[in-house]
Amino acid sequence: MTFNPRVDLRVPFVEKEDAKALGARWDSQKKLWYAPPGADLDPLKRWVPKDFLAPTLSTLVSSPDVESEKGISLSNLLSQVRGVIEEGMPVAVWVRAEISELSGKNGNLYPKLTQRNEQGDILAQSKSVIWKSRAAAITQKFTEATGEGLKPDIKILCLVKVRFDPLFGLDLIIEDVDPSYTVGDLAAKLARIREWLVRADLYERNQDLPAPVEFVRVAVISPESSAGLGDFRRETDRLQHAGLCDFLFFGATFQGVNAPSSIRVAINEALGAHRQRPFDVLVIIRGGGSVTDLAWLNDLELAQLVCRSPIPVLTGIGHERDSTILDEVAHRRFDTPSKVALFLTTTIRDNALAAITALAQVKLQVARILTRERTALATQADRLEAGVRSMTQQAEDDHRKFMSVVRTATHYQLREASQSLEVGWTRLVDQAEQTLGEAEFQLRQSMETIAHRSQLQLGTQTATIEKAANSIALQATAKIEAVASELEHGQNQVARDAARWVKAASVNLEESLASMARRAVTTAEVAKNGVESYARIVVGLGPQATLRRGFSIVRDTANRPITSREAALRNAEFTVQFHDGNVPVANREFDRKGV
């Protein structure tokens, strides 16, 4: 009996009952069923591939034990594989996978499906195809749900029919795609990141930073050639050219698997520049995109970096309906880059208007103070001029009085000197006359004595008489000359003393006048310096300068200043403004009093 060795499907894929009904014999060594020639193979068509039943492949042998060519052909092997696959997976199944590559031809789409582990290693991959007849419907359905069609690097849930061809190998035919899985996967990832940030107490850290009140230096992270960056720069370049705000741009990739690391590098570069010269705010913009594009921004490490940023972060990702984790943890989120630019421009404009208003108020106050001070200065100058005139007049009066006193004193002293001179002269004359009288009296006595004794001592006393007469005459002459010299010296001393007294009085008068003039000039300088000091104080009374000197402004919820403790107790909440930002304050006294 001969057998058809081509019917060689293996157990358990061949039903034993069907094989026995054909009269087939089982070869336990080769693990094959052998059907006899001429056997009716129609019952096997429901599970045996038709290629197995081709006439060209039904080679007859005399016996299974007859020696034949060793092994089977490749086509035989692959045909058996196809039969196993088609038997084992007769219907389509839903498969979770990631699109790693995507190409198209003749209307057909050829995604390459991949599965990765947590570390990003590839665990499995396979070719797949979406036939032209289904490609348009599947793409439209996916686009309506996610905002963009199928693309690489996204996860999908697809309905797959397995097909194996001995010539082209294994293919997965995608018959449908569930876009909700893709959206749900992105949402689940976002939820996991959000939960981790909340547990780490990072979620609101950047939001808790003081809101910037002015923008002078701004860091911007954006794709280098995006439409959103162009919209942003159309608004901000005017501020840059006007010198109102300095913008530094840091390029980064916002799509693809490298997007998170590229943005992290850009943020670190911006923070490095911030340490050298501080920024007021860090702006992250991109300018629109689909849900799947936004998914690359939902990165845990990137979110942590934004949360820990020491400067407030503003985002303008460009998507109004969907948000990323960066939008959630940023200090403030905007829908588009243009709205971020408008916010910056509006803030700078409002601050400028407020500064102009404040400057006008300061100028008005300064003008009022200067007017008041000019009036006070003019009044003081009039008083000073009157005082100088009064002091000058008083000095002139004092000078006249002093000169009168000097003249009177001089006249009195001259008169006293003259009287003293007359008294001295009279005394000297009296003394001279007295001396002469005494000399004459003595001479007469001597003459009488001589005459009386001349008779007795005429000879011996003649020389003595002459000598005594000469001595008396010399003494009288010496006394007269001494009195005359003393009188002349007294007259000269009186004249010198009178001249010295007059000169000293004149010098004292000149010094008094110079001192009064110096005091008048000093008083005018002091008044001028006081006015200039008041002007400098008024100029330094601006709000921002006052805040920088350590003062602060307390405002209520309506942004009105609170100027007293009683007014503060009437507010449950208020804000304390410092030069670098505001701090909200809850009034515990308000709660305690139950106001």
UniProtKB/TrEMBL annotation:
Q: What is its EC number?
A: 3.1.11.6
Where is the DUF5710 domain positioned along the sequence?
6-49
Signal sequence segment: none
Q: Which residues form the Exonuclease VII large subunit C-terminal domain?
A: 203-471
Question: What keywords are annotated for this sequence in UniProt?
Answer: Cytoplasm, Exonuclease, Hydrolase, Nuclease
Q: Could you provide one GO biological process annotation from this protein's UniProt record?
A: DNA catabolic process
Query: What cellular component GO annotations does this protein have?
Result: exodeoxyribonuclease VII complex
Top-rank EC class of the record's enzyme? hydrolase
> Which Pfam families does the record match to this protein?
DUF5710 (PF18974), Exonuc_VII_L (PF02601), tRNA_anti_2 (PF13742)
Q: Which GO terms describe its molecular function?
A: exodeoxyribonuclease VII activity; nucleic acid binding
**What sequence ranges are listed for the domain OB-fold nucleic acid binding?**
73-177
Q: Which domain of life is it from?
A: Bacteria
Protein name as annotated? Exodeoxyribonuclease VII large subunit
- Source taxonomy lineage? Bacteria, Pseudomonadati, Planctomycetota, Planctomycetia, Isosphaerales
Please state the gene responsible for encoding this protein. xseA
